[in-house]
Amino acid sequence: MSIMKHKTNITLYNSYFDLNDALTPKSILNIFQDVASVHAEEIGVGYSDMLAKNLYWVLSRVKFDIIKQPTPNQTVIVETWPLEKGRIDFDRDFLITSTDGEVLIKGTSKWCVIDTVNRSLQRTDNVNYLGEYCSLKNYEDRFNKILLPENEPQICFEHKVAYSDIDHNQHMNNTNYATLVSNATNCKSYSHFEINFINECVLNDNIIVKAIDNEYIIGYVLDKVSFVAYIK
User: Fold this and answer.
1) Which of 5, 6, 210, 226: disulfide with 81, CB 3.0–4.6 Å?
2) At what angle do helices 174-184 and 25-42 cross, to 10 degrees?
3) Residue pLDDT, tens place only, 160-212
4) Could you tell me which of 3, 8, 14 has the C-alpha nearest to residue 97?
5) What pLDDT does residue 188 have?
6) Is 41 helix (H, G, I), strand (E, B) or coil?
7) pLDDT bucket at 118, cuts 50 / 70 / 90
8) What sign for the dihedral angle of Cα 213, 214, 218, 223?
């Protein structure tokens, strides 16, 4: 069997960058999501494969570090691969390098599988990859709970979930939360980004976005926390 690793070249167009010519968190998560989707199809666990089993993928956590900021219109190499699956979750790593091999961005993500009928969490036994695992890991210390300071969070704004926020799993797509984080921090310069998705947001939900120290961003729907992010 072949090693489960996907590699592709992409051009980072101007639309991927903010007013300071920094690659936006949403753009990075879009790249991660797109290459993960393509690779999932290649290894037999794509959207249609999963739907045939009444299953779908849900992203629960993602983080990345920018080692060197890419530039507009630069062509880069994007790689992704799954790690060995756990009991109830699946980790997948990402790497973005220049065409001469310089590491620009590294990231990792944690996914779960949900049943489409009752929307319950499923064990990883129901999902089988086609191929052999890649042994490379971007992080040894992969995910920890984001610990919030004791400071009282301050309200930044409210966001009503619109049609354009929703993906084919009928909830707000993970990349659109990154836009909330960017707006809450006024597109601050950053090298590290991580976000934990706690409760899904659906059409017409009103998300109250709060911040602590311009680094910790929390989203609430009614009395429930929907996401917690940390950016530095």
Assistant:
1) 5
2) 170
3) 999 999 998 899 999 999 999 999 998 788 999 999 999 999 999 999 999 99
4) 8
5) 81
6) helix
7) confident
8) positive
Token pair belonging to 102: 């310089």
Phi, psi of 226 (to 5 degrees): -95, -35
Tokens 């991660």 belong to residue = 32
Answer left, alpha or beta for residue 166, where phi above 0 means left and psi between -120 and 50 means alpha. beta
Q: HSE of 25 in the Cβ direction (CA atoms, 13 Å)?
A: 30
Gap between the Cα atoms of 181 and 18, Å rounded = 13
Query: What are the residue boundaries of the structural domains of the chain, listed by start?
Result: 6-126, 154-231
Question: 79 is written with which tokens?
Answer: 């790689």
Q: Which CATH superfamily is domain 6-126 in?
A: Hotdog Thioesterase (3.10.129.10)
Q: pTM higher than 0.85 for the full model?
A: yes
Q: Classify each residue of 139-167 as buried b or exposed e, where b means 16 or more C-beta atoms within 10 Å of its C-beta.
A: eeeebeebeeeeeebeebeebebeeebbe
Residue 199, CB-side half-sphere exposure with 13 Å CA sphere: 11
